[in-house]
Amino acid sequence: MRRAILLMFALEASGTATQALRERDAEIRAALPPAGQVLSDPDRRRVEGIVVRIVDTRRILEAALRDRWTTLTEVERGRLLEAFERRFKVSGGTQLESMREARIEYLAERRQGDDIVVPTRVTVRDETSDVRYVVRNTPSGWRIVDIVVDEVSTVENYRASFARTIGREGVEGLIRRLERGGEARP
Question: pTM for the complete prediction?
Answer without folding.
Answer: 0.84
